[in-house]
Amino acid sequence: MEFLLQLFFLASLLICNTAIADQITKPYVVYMGNSSPNNINVDDQIPESVHLELLSSIIPSEESERIALIHHYSHAFSGFSAMLTHTEASALSGHDGVVSVFPDPILQLHTTRSWDFLDSDLGMKPPSTTQSHSSTDIIIGLIDTGIWPESPSFRDEGIGKVPSRWKGVCMEGHDFKKSDCNRKLIGARYYNTQDTSGNNKTHIEGAKGSPRDSIGHGTHTSSTAAGVIVKNASYYGLAKGTARGGSPSTRIAAYKTCSEEGCSGSTILKAIDDAIKDGVDIISISIGLSSLMQSDYLNDPIAIGAFHAEQRGVMVVCSAGNDGPDPYTVVNTAPWIFTVAASNIDRNFQSTLVLGNGKSFIGAGINFSNLTSSTMFPLVFGDEIAAKFTPTSEARNCYPGSLDYNKVAGKIVVCVNDDPNISRRIKKLVLQDARAMGMILVDENNRDVSFDAGAFPFTEIGNLEGHQILQYINSTKNPTATILPTIEVPRYRPAPIVASFSSRGPSSLTENILKPDVMAPGVSILAAMVPKSDEPGSVPIGKKPSLFGIKSGTSMACPHVSGAAEFIKSVHGRWTPSMIKSALMTTATTYNNLKKPVTNSSNYISNPHEMGVGEINPLKALNPGLVFETNVEDYIKFLCYYGYSNKIIRSMSKTNVTCPKTSQDLISNINYPSISIETLKRNQKVKVITRTVTNVGTFNATYVAKVHAPEGLVVKVIPNKLVFSERVQRLTYKVSFYAKEAHGGYNFGSLTWLDGRHYVHTVFAVKVE
């Protein structure tokens, strides 16, 4: 009897807790598809009252104060975000006209030399016909942390009137005036977000009050994409040169959606809706969901917004994520998104370590220390100076609280990086706080990405060098060392290399679309910065905060592709987003500045899951010869094959589509500028993939196919010759794959169309089982 009573009590408690949990409200996004039939003008808005009426139908009348919208989507697509209980969200998801309902996700924020490197050092000399070309009509929208309008990268000298088609605004804030916008920075928006108090604070309240950037991320990406030419730019003397964006005459519109804590998905969706209405040509988003938390395309705010942007001829470029080098980490993988991986450029930063025995080691990192080789300091390993009762494993990793501060002061400390949870920045702050003289980090990973330690002496070395340093410490009674200030290494080779942090494919959502698409510079990129001191020691003694900063990430690679797309759009104003994307993909290079195949940070030849089709080549992309036009019908087919219902796709596209029998296998046939096949069995018949190309070169041209396939995989092209004329500007061909003798796992290769002038390169990835 007692047992039954306990069981009854537990069941009651469970039911009670479930009921309480169900009454907790949190922000949800309610997505209702395309806002208007036949893509009518985005000026025709859906009244807010329509969405409020729907909301009032599921919220009890006694809680009428909750009938309020956080965001209202009414231009390119329909929907809203609001505070709902789980029960209310479920009720709405079954409502006619609602495509999907999902909790508002929190997304994360993922130059002098980089454009010169792309333009010349990879053999991309500018054609004389385009050198003098200038256009000021292209508008790029950057959805990020806002912008620092006073940066010299956003001056408007010599730039003409704002395009008459611009419908955006320059929102004022407590520290941002309308006069902060100009003919270069033509628009700026910020968004107030809903705050939920108490333990249920799931929504970010940041980004309130002003479009001004307080973090620097948005300022950096904006100037990389479209900053004007600024001579003698540098980061305290490092990376000195002329800073510029990919298309210095392009107009910038800033949409502030993020704070240091992250970015609200519902707010990003609102910014995309606004940017389309405002009249931007390209949207650049260096933000994404964590690769561990990917959801399907109808629960991803960037994928939803980008679909409707593509419908209206607006290109969306996104970062691939910073969760590499593991596979299946790439994000922003919808086929209508241009997904960008990160590489280094031909410049590196070195910080030399000198030991008391005269040996020196070249390490990586940025520091502006005032140490010299003539003065040495005591050298210790972290586990030798552990605080009482602290495991040596924590001390050797320089965990917060793991070291005896009295034994740290005045010494150079060696730390290892066994634990990925403690960042380089945290280790540095631990030692700085303990008044150490400097830090040597032993870590085989991330040496390709120079950590910025400010005025604090820092260098990062590999395991081999680390072993030698520990041997030295153990071999002498009073080991000493010094860390010299960073020097710049120009003409660094090889470059490009795939950055270690850059997220890898294949996509976990569908392996039948090859992702990432392309690679662009994203390591140690100099661009405009918020001139402030984040923490003690970040600004060298006697210097003012820098107007430029050096940052790394796919966040930095994304605006390089956005800038390249602007550049092409300025020359080919009528090209669609998919034509521009195709041009950048089929002309990308897979060779480095040593004229050898591109490698990754482990020195292995890189594959398409790491670098996509290769490093962008903006100048070559102006004249690609052939392009793959991926239209909205292709994307609708993709949604069909992916498994979404006719009803959902009709709501999204406002078309009368009737899907064929669904098969993810058919996704490989979408007219994409690369080919990916998730499964090709050795015992199956030939698999045939279809592609259609459009001639954008001279009318009369004959292209011949050249296949480069791995051993054992039989790849044939039918026909292997394409003949274009004034009457025939679009042709279809088939590629067959036969795997009987192929190696198991992924097989990578390429198909190139050649006409004597153009080199139309397409990459394939085929998984053989």
From TrEMBL:
Basic and acidic residues composition-biased segments:
202-215
* Keyword presence, Heme: no
Q: Which SUPFAM superfamilies match?
A: Subtilisin-like
Q: Where is the active site?
A: D144 (charge relay system), H217 (charge relay system), S555 (charge relay system)
- InterPro entries hit by this protein: Peptidase_S8/S53_dom, Peptidase_S8/S53_dom_sf, Peptidase_S8_Ser-AS, Peptidase_S8_subtilisin-rel, Peptidases_S8_3, S8pro/Inhibitor_I9, S8pro/Inhibitor_I9_sf, SBT
What region holds the Inhibitor I9 domain? 28-110
| A GO BP annotation | response to symbiotic fungus
Which keywords label this protein?
A: Apoplast, Glycoprotein, Hydrolase, Protease, Secreted, Serine protease, Signal
* Places the protein is found: Secreted, Extracellular space, Apoplast
Where does the record place the Subtilisin-like protease fibronectin type-III domain?
669-766
Q: Where in the numbering of this chain does the Peptidase S8/S53 domain appear? A: 136-592
Predominant place of localization = secreted
Gene Ontology cellular component terms for the protein in this record: apoplast
Q: Which GO terms describe its molecular function?
A: serine-type endopeptidase activity
- CDD domains documented for this protein: PA_subtilisin_like (cd02120), Peptidases_S8_3 (cd04852)
Where are the residues of the annotated region Disordered?
A: 197-221
Provide the leader sequence positions.
1-21
Q: Please report a single Pfam family linked to this protein.
A: fn3_6
Similarity comment = Belongs to the peptidase S8 family.
Q: What does this protein do?
A: Required for arbuscular mycorrhiza (AM) development during AM symbiosis with AM fungi (e.g. Glomeromycota intraradices).
Q: What is this protein called?
A: CO(2)-response secreted protease-like
State the species of origin: Cicer arietinum (Chickpea)
